[in-house]
Amino acid sequence: MPEPHGQPAARPVAPPPADRARATATASATPLIVAGICLAIPFAAMLWVDSYARVSPAFIGIPFFYWYQMLWVLLSTLLTVVAYVLVRRRERLRKGGEQQ
Amino acid sequence: MKEGVNGVALSVFLFFFLAVTVMGFWASRWRRAENAQNLDEWGLGGRSFGTWITWFLLGGDLYTAYTFVAVPAAVYAGGAAGFFAVPYTILCYPLVFTFLPRLWSVSHKHGYVTSSDFVRGRFGSRGLSLALAVTGILATMPYIALQLVGIQAVLDVLGVGGGDSANWFMKDLPLLIAFGVLAAYTYSSGLRAPALIAFVKDALIYIVIAVAIIYIPLKLGGFGEIFHKAGEAFAVTNKDTGKPRGALVTGPDAQWAYATLALGSAMALFLYPHSVTAVLSSKNRNVIRRNTTILPLYSLMLGLLAMLGFMAVAAGVKVKNGQLAIPQLFEDMFPDWFTGVAFAAIGIGALVPAAIMSIAAANLFTRNIYKDFLKPDATPEHEAKVSKLASLLVKVGALVFVLTLDKTVAINFQLLGGIWVLQTVPALVGGLFTRWFHRWGLLAGWAAGMIYGTWRAYATPSATQDHFGNTNVIPLIGEKGYIGLTAFAVNVLVAVVATLVLRAVKAPDGVDLTRPSDYTADAGEPGVVTELPPATAGVPGGH
């Protein structure tokens, strides 16, 4: 491994004071649980094949089976975005908290 | 099938091929670091890729030419069952979101280049690390071979495959040239070459899919008409098997298979060495998380692509080899020049993953076999040299594989490869979250899963042959399911029982070199190596 370049280790940008005050209060496990649920929902939806194994209603001629699963590409993406925002916010708060 | 060489399509194809060849060689100058003679530079592109490059790289890496040919081919052959690729790629991203940022962090903290590096550091076991490295290499080789099959399919339809009349040398010459060029720029540019070419590949693929999904249904009378015709074609009973050819919707007895195939494949996808290589080349952990929110765009594309299988059925494409269905559909439907664009997309789509896969396999060999067992004092320069040579060997091996053995052998091995890679989950993903498992317990579980999976796959007839099916009856449950996932359950069971026993008899535990905080470390924090070349970052050819 090459040595780290000589630059001083950049510290994460400290959040503004208002956020920092909230840090201890918000850095609970709740956002992580919500994020976990967001990530688990697609599994329930996709592995329950019986819930979508049918032809109708069709959408522009495409049987339900196909457009429904393609729709879930978008839904699961939205859920992942929610999880991302939650996890990021918690990480920032936690790091802000550590700096005090 | 049209006779002879399609001149216009071939010219367009050659144009794109030449363009990416130039890019491939030029890539060695792109974002170049001060000291390029080590594996972090050659094998991981300096670990410097941001969100967009990583997106293109992973997209180019995971959605391969074989995927483009095989997924619609599966739909063409049997309808709904082939569509499991869509839930499969939906489910892999929540999984990636959960565990890969941890792998990224611990790898950057400790300078791990491969996933086996991590396992060795975590469990203090060279044996376990070797087992996983060999699994990875074995699973990757046939995958590279299948990329060649993808190029071959395109060349065949273009009419330069030579057909049955040409002698073997003339027949395989175009493929040999394509692969020689690929090998040369991978050797000189490393991971930067596929990263740069991936831009072209993905742009072409998106254009082709967008056009195909609008243009072909217009010609065939709309989706309603396509599915109507496909439904009729699938309902026709096959004389040999006495069963209908396929179905528009998975039947009640096929749902377990559909779900387990999707889940098992999703778990395996990001443990393939080439996925890990692409992930570790990103510059911080949020690049990976952000990518899980934009990579599904490829899943959407894959779903649309699968639709092409129905279009090929509705358009009455008749091919003996199902893999040729989509190239043939393109040639029948598109004007010649656009056929060339579409074929270039598939051809370049084969080059990008083939390059990354050979780099990943070479890194595994260098780090976990060569350095661990043969030459422990290898310097970084020496490692890079060995890896470059190994990448050549891997490609030659894949080429020999394709040219000497039947294509179905490559497909069978690729199927086994998926089952095998799934057996690395307990050690790798388990290791990222817990140190509870005992190293020998994991090794025993791995061996049990490998043997069970290989044996069951061999004993299961597939649609076209007596062996190498991928779904069979799950013990205790009694439904048909993906063999890889059943083998995984066996693996975990053995690992848990063996760990309990080994802990009870106080078997020596390996040394864990990692600390809990290593798994959440990010770029810019103390001790995390940042390898962005300082002055030249983002400036192409800055030297």
TrEMBL record, chain B:
Q: Entry's Pfam families?
A: SSF
Q: Which residues form a coiled coil?
A: none
Topology in membrane: Multi-pass membrane protein
- Drop me one GO molecular function for this one: transmembrane transporter activity
Localization per Swiss-Prot or TrEMBL: Membrane
The entry sums up its family as follows: Belongs to the sodium:solute symporter (SSF) (TC 2.A.21) family.
- What is the official name of this protein in its record? Permease
Q: Which organism is it from?
A: Streptomyces mashuensis
